[in-house]
Amino acid sequence: MSTRSPEEQLKEFELTAACLRAYLQKYPELQTPKVLIICGSGLGGLSSLLKQDDKYHKISIKYKDIPGFKESHVPGHSGELIFGHLGENATPVMCMVGRFHYYEGHSFYSNTFPIRVAKLLGVEYLVVTNAAGGINESYKPGDIMVINDHINFPGLAGQHPLRGLNLDNFGPRFTPLSDAYDFDLRLTVFNSLKKLGINRNIHEGTYFYASGPTFESRAECRMIRYLGADAVGMSTVPEVIVARHCGIKVLGLSLITNAVLGEKPASAKDASLKGKSSIDIIDQSKGMASHDEVLENANNTADDVKKLVEYFVGSL
């Protein structure tokens, strides 16, 4: 939540939008992008798909050079905004190579700042990608989940990106989220799978937003599964909520990079009764998540995600 008035916030967004237009002054076709693509962990390579030749230009701007943008300090997030054309129809897009996270100490206002700037630039669609842990027991590392719903756990406890005075210039006070992830956009993805020759498992499910930065405990994983989520991650939902508040349509893709550990830990009490030591008990670290594993599996899946995003954007 920002302490600035709605009028002051609007001026800040407008200043940043004007700054970006100035950067793009020589390339007027890029000043009004149609799609914002947020590249999650290990997916920065999406920006490599942007066309670059004598006809089409690709312009990169570091976050540190953009008013209102924070710097990302997470491995796999390079921290630059890239403008260019993507897909068969050469759709003008802006790519966030790296995002801002609540666990980094940024406010939700800062985390979602680029969404409102994108709206002022003319963006109509948000493609948001992330790396996520598989909660659904049928999900395996390397699978992709098309997000059809979410659980905003911090938001239910009051940490909500729309908390505070409403920004009436962008959207209504009470924003419905029953259609947060657009049906027609999801349908486009599933209709494209055979044409693109993608053979990996593509699921459709619910994303659980936890603020991080720790990976979930075993008990938390069981709770999240009980609540009906299929995958869990530390991003995306605040961005989606603000996008929907702005009237931007959303497509969300999760790369399943690890299977969560939901089994109860080994019992020290039982081991004591049986006269066993930790050496006799299964390794408690086996299967534990790590950011290196997340990046590795994201990189292994990235090519198929690139195909999906390129086809989807090209169909708009």
UniProtKB/TrEMBL annotation:
**Residues involved in phosphate binding:** 41, 77, 99-101, 131, 235
Under Enzyme Commission nomenclature, its number is 2.4.2.1
Domain Nucleoside phosphorylase, residue spans: 34-312
Quick one: which residues bind a purine D-ribonucleoside?
216, 258
Q: Which reaction does it catalyse?
A: a purine D-ribonucleoside + phosphate = a purine nucleobase + alpha-D-ribose 1-phosphate
Its Gene Ontology cellular component terms are: cytoplasm
Keywords tagged on the record: Glycosyltransferase, Transferase
SUPFAM superfamilies listed in its UniProt record: Purine and uridine phosphorylases (SSF53167)
Tell me which family the UniProt entry assigns to this protein.
Belongs to the PNP/MTAP phosphorylase family.
Q: Which PANTHER family match?
A: METHYLTHIOADENOSINE/PURINE NUCLEOSIDE PHOSPHORYLASE, PURINE NUCLEOSIDE PHOSPHORYLASE-RELATED
* Protein known as: Purine nucleoside phosphorylase
Q: Which organism is it from?
A: Pichia californica
